[in-house]
Amino acid sequence: MSFIAPETAAILWGIVKAIVILLVVVIFAAYLSFIERRVLALWQDRYGPNRVGPGGIFQLPADVVKMLFKEDWIPPFADRTTFLLAPVIAMSALLISYVIVPVAPGWQVADFDIGILFFLAMAGLAVYAVLFAGWSSDNKYSLLGGVRSAAQTVSYEVFMGLSLMGVVAQAGSFDMRAIVEAQRGMWFIVPQFLGFVTFALAGVAVTHRSPFDLPEAEQELAAGYHTEYAGMKWAMFFVGEYVGIVVVSSLLATLFLGGWLGPGPEWLAPLWFALKTLLFVMLFILLRAALPRPRYDHLMTAGWMVCLPVTLLNLLLTGAVLLAGG
Amino acid sequence: MQEAFYVCSLVALLTTLRVVTTANPVHALLYLVVSLLAVAGIFFALGAPFAGALEVIVYAGAIMVLFVFIVMMLNLGAETVAQERAWLRPRAWAGPVLLAALLLGALLRAIAGTAGGAGAVEVTPKAVGIALYGPYVLAVELASLLLLGALVAAYHLGRDDHR
Questions:
Q1: Which residues of A touch B125 (CB under 8 A)?
Q2: Which of A35, A136, A240, A266 stands 20 to 30 A from A56 (CA)?
């Protein structure tokens, strides 16, 4: 390949890697809708969607076709620009934050110095999807969903950042690769157990998955912030939620379970990463199957009165241990 | 990086202008969010990724969310937009714009006199931390006292005495 300069080849290889990661994440996130329904059904002693193709694996293409052919309806009373913008933010904000996740050694879209902070920034922007969807729909259920979501996300984001700072302090860097390398001796889930628990809770709350799905509590709020959405725009909210699960699971695996570290040769690294991520994805689904939704004020109280002090305590202890260890 | 700086600056200027001239409060806030993101982009282009990330996390991701939250709760309707339009007549803004233009002229003159650009030296998060807890530790302590005072005051105001 002498007609391509080495720099150009490196750039092209980088682009190929980025596209592969993007496609795998999006397709896996979309397929999660099917996986979740099947796995939930299994746990609840039902069959779930098993009609389309062997074992129902073509359920997703069938759903996509249905979504695409649905009327793309915008309510006449809605605020058009914001109404259209909301699903775009819902799907892209957390998807963009996947660029910092190291899938394997050398397989990472962007190696930022600020690593985790980039995820926190994107998670902060993801709130606007729900806020704008709730407001622009001009529907009181949507608005209530949006308001709930804003309060919930802002409360849980406060200690989501703090819960990760213990990991950052131990690794001595915001850089995701440095954090993975720092876990060669011991996975951070052991010394940072409190950080792990609080970050997992915050992750569920920020992706507003059940049991923290009060913004879209269907019994009280119709479908919450996306009540007025249909067709592909609704599907973007839907896939955005699954992308959120994948991102938070990948981060949990990377920050607390050693990411791609594992026994065996180096080419097994992506497999270890995928397995650890899958473990957390399954936990997300199991959580939905197992737990009822808490009351809204309980949710807020738990965030501010329990989780925030716990993360501060964790940070204090980590600092003290690091200082004593020199 | 220079192109990125100019693009981000242009976006920041245009969106900030729209924040002032938009009659719909939620749209104005949306422009303000974009403006803050553009400012974060400027920080990235100048080699200060930590400041850029904080700009997004703190301003765009937290403070502006609260602004949008409150405006949504107020449920401002068409009459607010009409009122806002009435306030945006040239008679109201012509004078201040003239005075601000004078200030801008003076500022441009001052900038034209200085040599060169900012010089894109990358500032790592570690360097920021060392600076904050080294020479600027007093400022950090004072800021934390101020925030603690605000926190206590907010807690006092928000307390429910009836229980």
A1: 113-114, 117, 174
A2: A240
